[in-house]
TrEMBL record:
Transmembrane segments: none annotated. The keyword Heme does not apply. Belongs to the tektin family. Keywords: Cell projection, Cilium, Coiled coil, Cytoplasm, Flagellum. It is found in: Cytoplasm, Cytoskeleton, Cilium axoneme. GO terms for biological process: cilium assembly; cilium movement involved in cell motility. It comes from Adineta ricciae (Rotifer). Residues 170-197, 284-325, 364-398 form a coiled coil. This is Tektin. Its main location: cytoplasm. The keyword Glycoprotein does not apply. GO terms for cellular component: axoneme; microtubule cytoskeleton; nucleus. It comes from the Eukaryota.
Length: 451
């Protein structure tokens, strides 16, 4: 047993120690008594225990101070490191906030640009109603041609081609408008996704900024139940960055597609304008050329009519002369016949067939032959007069046909002047029908009959 253990061991009272003496003693009141060594041992034990407890307490105090300093430093550095992490996180969130804000501004400008292009395309589509109505009216006008003039000529083919070109342009423009509408919807959807992402980042930035401003002396801090528990929906930083990058890349892709679509819309409008102008000029040239041919034909018919009328007048004069000549022959024939008949009344031997008789007979035969010849010539003259009258009527009918055709061609050309006038705006109903390809101008039946 060590000395410390012996010192720390409680002492037994002296009464409990057997005392053997040979001398008689006085009777004393029983009580506990200790020995002197026990007394010394007891005092030594108290001193030793006090010193030892002081040493232990000193070591505990030193350990406590060291642990306090260590935990303070560890806590300070942990807080400092997390402050740096929160600050870095704030910088990263702020960088993405600015990126998303710039992207939203770009997509707003692109949405406005594609809407402007779509509206221009819609107005151009609406403007197709006038040339289509003009071409259709030209078809209806030229359908009024009569007889031989109702031919499938070059203007007819050019007008059919013009209607086909206009209908093709309308289909292309309508497709571009529909594509632009869909593109605006995709741009708007991408913008809304960016806005939601930006709003979330504003919220996250505010939370991180508030956490950065908190310290151990803040009044609104408290213990929280299990703050390190896993939260449903938590993602990794890589997933967070990939999500924002996906939204940004998607918006940039839609803006790129929108830019290409705007270029396609303007190209389609420009090409359509060139095609329509070229075909319109071709149709108008064909109409003017046909009008020139009709006017030449009408002038020729007018000249033929004039010549025929002059010939009819000459023929009628000749008929009158022939009729007069025939009438003039009758008295002569009567005179010759009367003379010859009167000579038949001669008596007796005076009834001779002399030269006078032969002469009168020859005269009668000659006059009859002349009359028959005149009558034959009169028949031929009247027949020629009838033929001339028939041709004159035919020429006059043809002149009426040509005049009607010229009037229709001029009306068609006059109608085409509306293509150079300002286009009046349509009603909302007509605009909706136009955009929905519900054509109320009647072009569909015409196209079906033509093609």
């Amino acid at each position: 047993m060590s000395g410390f253990e012996a010192l720390s061991k409680p002492l037994k009272p002296r009464s409990e120690v057997a005392v053997h003496t040979i001398h008689p003693t006085l009777e004393e009141k029983p009580r506990s008594k200790y020995s002197v060594p026990d007394w010394f041992n007891h005092n030594y034990a108290i001193s030793y225990d006090a010193e030892r407890s002081r040493n232990v307490s000193h070591q505990v105090r030193q350990d406590g101070r060291r642990l306090t300093n260590e935990t303070y430093n560890e806590s300070w550095w942990n807080k400092h490191d997390n402050d740096v992490r929160i600050s870095d996180r704030l910088d990263e969130i702020d960088k993405w906030r600015k990126t998303l804000e710039y992207t939203i501004q770009d997509i707003d400008r692109e949405i406005q640009a594609i809407r402007t292009a779509k509206e221009q395309c819609e107005r151009y589509l609406e403007s197709m109603r006038r040339p289509l109505d003009v071409a259709l009216e030209n078809h209806v006008t030229r359908d009024g041609r009569k007889a031989i003039d109702n031919v499938d000529d070059e203007p007819e083919r050019e007008l059919k081609k013009e209607v086909y070109v206009i209908d093709g342009v309308k289909r292309q423009l309508h497709q571009q408008v529909q594509t632009a509408f869909d593109q605006i919807a995709r741009l708007t959807e991408a913008k809304q996704q960016l806005i939601r992402d930006l709003q979330d980042k504003h919220t996250a930035f505010a939370i991180c900024e508030e956490n950065l401003q908190l310290n151990e002396f803040s009044p609104n801090i408290s213990y929280k139940p299990d703050p390190c528990r896993p939260i449903k929906g938590q993602i990794t930083p890589e997933e967070w960055m990939a999500f924002s990058k996906y939204n940004k890349d998607r918006a940039e892709k839609e803006m790129y597609e929108s830019t290409r679509l705007r270029e396609s819309i303007f190209h389609t409008m420009g090409q359509s304008a060139a095609d329509l102008e070229s075909q319109s000029k071709a149709s108008e040239y064909a109409l003017r050329k046909r009008l020139h041919e009709l006017e030449r034909s009408l002038n020729e018919l007018e000249w033929q009519k004039k010549q025929t009328q002059e010939e009819i007048l000459s023929n009628e004069s000749d008929i009158d002369r022939l009729e007069k000549a025939i009438r003039d022959k009758e008295p002569l024939i009567k005179l010759a016949m009367t003379r010859q008949e009167n000579r038949h009344s001669r008596p007796g031997m005076d009834l001779v067939r002399d030269e006078v008789s032969y002469g009168l007979c020859d005269e009668i035969q000659q006059l009859k032959a002349e009359k028959r010849a005149l009558e034959d010539q009169l028949k031929q003259a009247k027949h020629a007069w009838n033929i001339l009258q028939q041709n004159l009527h035919r020429i006059e009918d043809e002149i009426a046909v040509k005049s009607n055709s010229i009037m229709l061609e001029k009306r068609a050309l006059e109608t085409r002047r509306r293509l150079n006038t300002e286009i009046t705006p349509m009603t909302e109903v007509d605009r909706t029908r136009q955009l929905m390809n519900m054509d109320s101008s009647g072009i569909r039946p015409v196209l079906q009959s033509i093609y």
